[in-house]
Amino acid sequence: MDVTTRFAQLACLLVALACAPSATAQQFITVASTTSTEQSGLFGHILPIFERKTGIEVRVVALGTGQALDLARRGDADVVFVHAKAAEEQFLREGHGVRRFPVMYNDFVIVGPKADPAGIAGGDDTLEALRKIKSAAAAFVSRGDRSGTHIAEVDLWTMAGVDIEKEKGPWYRETGQGMGPALNTASSMNAYLLSDRATWLAFRNRGELAVLVEGDKRLMNQYGVMLVSPDKHPNVKRAQGQAFIDWLVSPEGQAAIAEYTIGGEQLFFPNANDAGA
Amino acid sequence: MGDVTSAFDEAVRLIFAADGTLYGIVLLSLQVSLTAVAVATAIGLPLGAALAIRRFPGRPVLLVALNALMGLPPVVVGLVVYLLLSRAGPLGELGLLFTPTAMVIAQAILVTPIIAGLSRQVLEDAWHEYEEQLRSLGATASRAAATLLWDTRYSLVTVVLAGFGRAAAEVGAVIIVGGNIDGVTRVMTTAISLETSKGDLPLALGLGLILVAVVVLINAAAQIIKTAAARRYG
Amino acid sequence: MLPLILEDVSFAAGGRAIIDRVSCTFTAGPRTLILGPNGSGKSVLMRLCHGLLTPTSGRIVWRGSRDDLRPRAQAMVFQRPVMLRRAAFANVTYGLALAGVGKADRDERAREVLDAVGLGRVANRPARVLSGGEQQKLALARAWALEPEVLFLDEPTANLDPAATREVERIVDQIHESGTKIVMTTHNLGQARRLADEILFMSGGRLADHAPVERFFAQPSTAEAAAFIKGELPWT
Q1: For the whole model, what pTM was predicted?
Q2: What is the pLDDT at residue A6?
Q3: Side-chain half-sphere of B124: how many Cα atoms within 13 Å?
Q4: Is A107-219 the same fold as A27-105+222-270?
Q5: Interface of B with C in 151-180 (CB under 8 A)
Q6: B162: helix, coil or strand?
Q7: Which of A143, B17, B121, C67 shows the greatest Cβ crowding within 10 Å of its Cβ?
Q8: How confident is the model at residue B157 (pLDDT cuts 50, 70, 90)?
Q9: Which phi and psi (to 5°) does residue B149 adopt?
């Protein structure tokens, strides 16, 4: 058999491979969520449980909170699962969502270099810590990407009496990226950073960084889930999407969230029955 | 340096662990990029041949545009295709967003100008040599184009490989239109991007080594076939 | 299709007149050689006759009718043979396929001409690995296979050694004997003497002389022709 024929056979094999049916015709929903839930490994733990129970595949597109909500506004997701209550309520007011359910919370921590030039280590007053960072003009990395974490960070600056948009200096570095890349940047710059604990625990490239401030009530980070409105977006899979939401707030779903740990530490704390969350 | 050696260890460990997820990601990468290149070749080669042979008003403008399109930024292509395939966009009804098909479409758009532009150059050079003889023998334009395509097949293999290299290496387009969904649209490049942002650099590098190895293997295979065929057919 | 009649044909390119009001007639039968120094327009005149170029003024008319038994009415062999990247045999059948000849007839005719030009043994070799002389013989075979009424040859032996040149001239004669009109350019006086029945002498884009071969060499009708024969016409 000559080379040309062999080549043709190989080509046909490749094309057949390419045309092989990839995803099955199984039912699935698209969930727009944040990088913290994906990268911490939470979804890797809880989704298989849901899928085994209902046969519904959950496809997660992980972006920042702002991007996730925008994605849903375009009708490209069935469910949004993010952590910025004000932005979520705005989303509902616009008519894009049906109803918001609180699901779980985790907390933020301030990480920074062990050398701690701003002298904030061990404190539990976030606002004081931020003020110290600013007066020391110590390097601080911000997400800068309208994510839930970024929104929380800006709110904390405001509460500390700092108008960060006006008062930021060269010490304040906005990366416009997800939590992981921001941590990478902070690690290589030995800078301070507001991070959610879950992503921090799963993060491997810590360098000289450590948790310096934690436990402050203001650092609580609430997650909520919403079904995208089928009235506004007829393509939304109402039944399956609602099934996912129902499961998340059910005792079984809440237990699955609670049992997810890294190094023995629990990352997310279920609070679906906390009506005010 | 420690990261690089751990990267090699990671790469070897991954391959020998016969990890189903890894093979799934590699297979999907090949499926998406090879299909995209096949589509781009089916469109790009005839286009390159037509541009090489025909003279028409506006041809110089078209050539400049084509050469410029070879350098399309993948992330821009991804954004445009996303806007087209989004539910809020004109093709939303098709429900193609966040599927491998969307990734193939985006990469095909990225690669077609490369194949058309590079093949145009190869075929135009060949046409200078062949034109008088083919016209003397009575070949029509389309017959001449087909003959040129076959006669320049070795150079065209290199052109197609260049297109494949571009597709296999890009992340900007597939991450936007695919969404990097675990088990559905996660390919080598988006997986590397994810592991990097999680800070697991040895794993990211390990995946990178595997990606490079796969591309090298494909190029080597093509080179072997080319050399053997050239020896046979001159 | 013969006779071929040129009426006041001119061809200009880049503002220069390359062919300047040439009028002549090509009839079936005599081997016509177009002679002249480099730059006299011989090659351009051939391409105008064959149809590869269009005259900028004047007319080129084929007065006769088409013989449908011949696969193609005209063929041309160039100074440098252009072969496809395939076997010698396949190069010959390519031309026949373009002319619409069926597979069995193609294969038979290809074998015939390849044997006739002495390439039977290398028929299955890739055409591009053949020597310059063999490739030119292959070009002749390819053209001959089409049984053309007219065969144009543009300085076919300019790049060949004397032995290959002799072989090519022998084949041209065979093609002539099989019923094809030969129109060939050359700047080689010896070749013109050997092959021509009639001479068209070109100089500076004009047809300076048109005569039977003996009369041309014995009594050139212009000073330029005389100078050329004596080897005194300068390069342009």
Answers
A1: 0.85
A2: 58
A3: 14
A4: yes
A5: 151, 153
A6: helix
A7: A143
A8: very high
A9: -60, -45
From the first residue on, what is the mean pLDDT of each consecutive set of 10 residues in chain C (236 residues)? 92 91 93 90 94 94 86 94 95 95 95 95 93 96 96 95 94 95 92 93 91 90 84 60
Domain boundaries, chain A: 27-105+222-270, 107-219
Nearest-by-CA chain B residue for C125: B233
A27-105+222-270 CATH choice from 1.10.490.10, 3.30.470.20, 3.20.20.60, 3.40.190.10: 3.40.190.10
The pLDDT of residue B14 is 79
Give the Cα separation of B105 and B36 in Å (integer): 7
Residue type for A110, please? I
**C neighbour chains, 3+ CB pairs within 8 Å:** B
Q: How far apart are CA B232 and CA B134, in angstroms?
A: 24
Looking at beta carbons, which residues of chain A come within 8 Å of B198? 39, 180, 202-204
Q: Which residues of B touch C99 (CB under 8 A)?
A: 138
Q: Which of C94, C43, C178, C84 is nearest to B137 (CA)?
A: C94
Q: Between chains, do C50 and B136 touch, taking CB under 8 Å as contact?
A: yes
Do C and B touch, counting CB pairs below 8 Å (3 needed)?
A: yes
Dihedral, CA atoms, B70, B75, B80, B81, nearest 10 degrees? 90
Q: Which of residues 31-60 of B touch A (CB under 8 A)?
A: 31, 34-35, 38
Could you give the maximum distance between any two Cα atoms of chain A, in Å? 80
**C191 SS3 class:** helix
- Residue C235's pLDDT is 52
C84 contacts in chain B (CB < 8 Å)? 147, 151
Closest A-chain CA to B35: A18
- CB within 8 Å: B139 and C98: yes
How buried is C117 (Cβ within 10 angstroms: 0-12 exposed, 13-18 middle, 19+ buried)?
A: buried
Quick check: B100 contacting A, CB < 8 Å? yes
φ, ψ at A80 (rounded to 5°): -115, 140
| Residues in chain A, pLDDT under 50 | 1, 20-23
Residue C36 has a CB neighbour count (10 Å cut-off) of 29
pLDDT at A1: 43
User: If you measure CA to CA, which chain A residue comes closest to B223?
Assistant: A7
Token pair in block for residue C102: 């069926």
Task: Kindly state which CATH superfamily the domain A107-219 is placed in.
Answer: Periplasmic binding protein-like II (3.40.190.10)
ipTM of the complex: 0.92
Question: Regarding the domain with residue range B2-41+70-111+146-233, which homologous superfamily does it belong to in the CATH classification?
Answer: MetI-like (1.10.3720.10)
Query: Are residues B34 and A177, on separate chains, in Cβ contact within 8 Å?
Result: no
Alpha helices in A97-250 (DSSP H): 126-136, 148-159, 164-167, 179-189, 197-202, 238-249
Domain regions of chain C by residue span = 83-148
CB–CB of C219/C201 below 8 Å? no
- Looking at residue C234, its pLDDT comes to 57
B128 touches chain C (CB under 8 A): no
User: So what's the pLDDT on residue B227?
Assistant: 87
Please indicate whether, in this complex, the C-beta atoms of A35 and B35 are within 8 angstroms of each other. Answer: no
3-state SS class at A109 = strand
Reduced to 3 states (helix: H, G, I; strand: E, B; else coil), residue C11 is: strand
Using CA atoms of C189, C195, C197, C199 in order, give the dihedral in degrees to the nearest 10.
-30
SS3 label, residue C2: coil
Contact B207, B188 (CB under 8 A): yes
- pLDDT value for A192: 95
**Which residue, chain included where needed, has tokens 């595997």?**
B210
Inter-residue contact B18 to A5 (CB < 8 Å)? no
CA distance C38 to chain B (A): 20
CB-nearest partner of C78 from B133, B232, B234: B133
CA distance B151 to chain C (A): 6
